[in-house]
Each structure stands twice: as C-alpha cells, then as structure tokens.
Amino acid sequence: MRFFTYETQLPDDVGFSLFGSVHLAWLAGILAFTAIAALWFSQRPAYRQRRISWAVAWLLCAMIVVEKVVLALTGHLNVYSLPFHLCELAPLLYLLFAWRHWDWLGQVLYTLCLPGAAAALLFPDWSAYPQWNFMNLNSFLVHGLLILFPILQLVEHTIRPRLGALWKVWLFLAVLVPPMWLFNQLSLPERRLPKLPSDLDFGLHRPCVVLAGVRTLGSGGHGGHAPAVGGAKRITPKATALW
Asked: How far is it, in rounded angstroms, from Cα 157 to Cα 74?
C-alpha cells in the first residue's frame, strides 16, 4: 500500500512521465472542469458567486492543512513543509480576497498565483509519486483549484487586470521576498542564495511561478524533485520560503 508513502521511501520508476498519458489526462481533466465550472459560475447570482468563492478558498486551505497532518503522521513534517512558498501561501491570499476584494491583491492573484499554478501543473515536482498516492492526488487537485479561483474572480469581475497596476505586484514582492530570503538564509546556512550558475537548477526545479528577473517562487511542500521523465525519480535539494 503506497497511498501515504513519502517520495524518499518510494522505489524508482513508480511515478508518472512528464507529459505522459497520466499527466496529460490530469491536465485535460483540470482544463475541462475549470471551463465548465466557470460557465456554471457565470450563470449564478452575485450572492451565490460570493459563497462559491468562499467555499473554494476554504476548501483549498483545508486541503493544505490535511496535507500537513498527513506529513506529520508519517513523520515527514519539517521546516521545508512550512507553507511559505507561493502555492501554499495562495490559499490564504484567496481567503483574504474572498473577504475583501482589494485591487492590489487581485493583481497579485492574477499576475503571480494564476500563472504560478499553471506552471506547476505543466512541470509538476511530484512526478515521483505513483498515480494513486495521496501527495500526487492532493497536488493535482490543489493546483487545479489554485487556477479555478482566480478564473472565477475574472468571471465575477472582482479581478480586473491592468498593466498599469503591475507596480502593486512588485511592491508586494518587495515586502514579502526579503523576509522569505532571510528565512532561507537562516534555515539553510549551508546554501547561501543566490549562487549562479550552480544554483540555477536549485531555484528553477519547481516552477511555482516564473517572473522575469525574479527567481522561481516555489519549492518545498509537495515534492522537492525535478519533474521525472519516463517515470524516473530524481531527488534534488529543497528550498524553503519563496525561493
């Protein structure tokens, strides 16, 4: 029974291939569900749309908590499991946005969280897990919902992307990244970031979000290995926080 087995305890070649049949089936299913859900959502009255947004945000938070509980019960909860990277900070940001539709937060969700979740689905770092494993199922479902929420907000017009509002996203990064970088330095003293070019793969192996001029905002959490090709498992060091 490998449903709750952690990646480091799995044999080689039990995972799925990048853009293989399993991966493509998940992508197609998430795309279809998102399109159908967005169409259904657009036909709901405003008060129901607000309730649905709350439900999706709370569901995401609950799924992250369940993941941490599973990691704790299996003895794999550690500093790298803290929800300090973008794909696990996002549910909290979604919950905040469901409460208050601040424009700066909407710009952050659209510019960072939406493309970040899409990149993580295209290049998953949990590919060492077999299909019927908790971490695999939870990771695909979480990232699918991470895409769904901002799409629903675009349908509801609570998020209105504007090129002129990009400064709000950069300001958000300017406030958030330095303490996360410091946390990295304190928690991983043996690896002083950034080091180029040797650390390039270390920063890019989990593309939770790709930003021009900013290292990948991701790593830790669900996996910690590069996407496997042909189902092969390749474990790489993890980074915490936003790096």
From this structure: 42
Half-sphere exposure of 113 (CA within 13 A, CB side): 29
Residue type, 149: F
70 contacts 121 by C-beta, under 8 angstroms: no
Query: Does the global pTM surpass 0.85?
Result: no
Q: Positive or negative, the Cα torsion across 229, 234, 238, 243? A: negative
Contact 224, 162 (CB under 8 A): no
* Collapsed DSSP state (helix, strand, coil) of residue 28: helix
- Give residues with Cβ within 8 angstroms of 75, minimum separation 6: none
Calpha distance 146→47 (Å, rounded): 21
> Are 120 and 206 contacting, i.e. CB atoms less than 8 angstroms apart?
yes
Question: Rounded to an integer, what distance in angstroms lies between the CA atom of residue 32 and that of residue 18?
Answer: 20
Residue 23: the pLDDT is 96
| Rounded Cα–Cα distance for residues 73 and 60 (Å) | 20
Distances in Å between the alpha carbon of 192 and those of 79, 158, 182, 188, 243? 17, 40, 10, 7, 11
The pLDDT of residue 82 is above 60: yes
- Asked if 242 and 176 touch (Cβ cutoff 8 Å), the reply is yes
Averaged pLDDT of the chain: 80
